[in-house]
Amino acid sequence: MPPERYLRYLLPPSLFHTQRTKEILNVNPTIEQKRKPLELVTVSVYSYDAHGVTEATYDDVESVFHCKADAANCWINIDGIRKEDVEKVSAHFGIHPLLSEDILSRHQRPKMDEVDGILYCLLNMLYFNEEQGCVEVEQVSIVLGKGFVITFQEDPKRDVFNAIRDKLRVSGSKLRTRGVDYLCYSLLDTIVDSYYLVMEKLGDRMESVEEEVIRNTNTVAMARINNLRKELIVLKRNIAPVRDIVNNIIRSESELLEETTTKYFKDVYDHIIQAYDLSENYRDVMLSMQDLYLNNVNLRMNEVMKVMAVVTCLLAPATVIGGIFGMNFESIPLLHNKWGFLAAVGLMLIIPVWMIGMFRRKGWF
Prior knowledge:
Largest sheet: 7 strands, mixed
CATH architecture of the largest domain: 2-Layer Sandwich
Strand order of the largest sheet: 2-1-3-7-6-5-4
CATH class of the largest domain: Alpha Beta
Strand content: 15-25%
Radius of gyration: 34 Å
Order of helices and strands: HHHEEEHHEEEEHHHHHH
């Protein structure tokens, strides 16, 4: 086993992940978040209709302004968020300044807004870090307008939309034949489906921790339970509000949403409800696991106390006999008898043996 795999359990900060607690709890969306300056922003454009699809990649947002005038449906994916780029795109595509602030903000609660003919969704993509055993969050903003969908992502190196890109390249697929509202549904559905992948990883971790708790009730097992509970907090915090997002879209009367697409959003709603219920089940399992740990600790303590009590009881006759014959009286029975010592020692051995037999008949051990 590599040294880093077991050395991390010897260091308290690595074992209990106190820094992770600070990251989870100290979230204040009203504080302006400073982003690292990005040297390069990648803009991917997919212009498509039933007859074909055109893909293009640019290094600046000005190159995509022609998409608004195109007759074909357009998906603009911006990897990397810079304030000046968001302001330019918002000004060109008619995105309200309040929505621009939400795009630039961090640690926002997932939500859905409809302002000036623009339907805006903000939610998080979730990834599971195998090395650190934690859930990583990436904020994504989805802007639905007339004939276009714009997605803003923080991390240019990863997302969960590759399946959508592949479907756009397939002739005759529903994405190609339907409008941009169906593309918006597909994006939301892909993000929600990716939640199940993260929950599967957490479920595997929970099984291994449960086995460890049953085999070895120690500090490491308790630390792993505590760390998993933190990740479940992150999971539930990001899943629960998505129900409201999809529900508001279903109840929306926006002209951007076709009536035939509503049933697809209902399917996403069913998926997110199921994901939320599963996260609740995970929480219940973690609480049961914590109770199991405490019960095992109490059981071990009771076993230790029982052994100590039995040993104390077995030593009590020897203590009493030794105390009696050790008294400073001139006349003590068998004091000057050559068999007195052997008789005392014999009693010290016979009585504990008799007590052991009695304890076993009563089933005390």
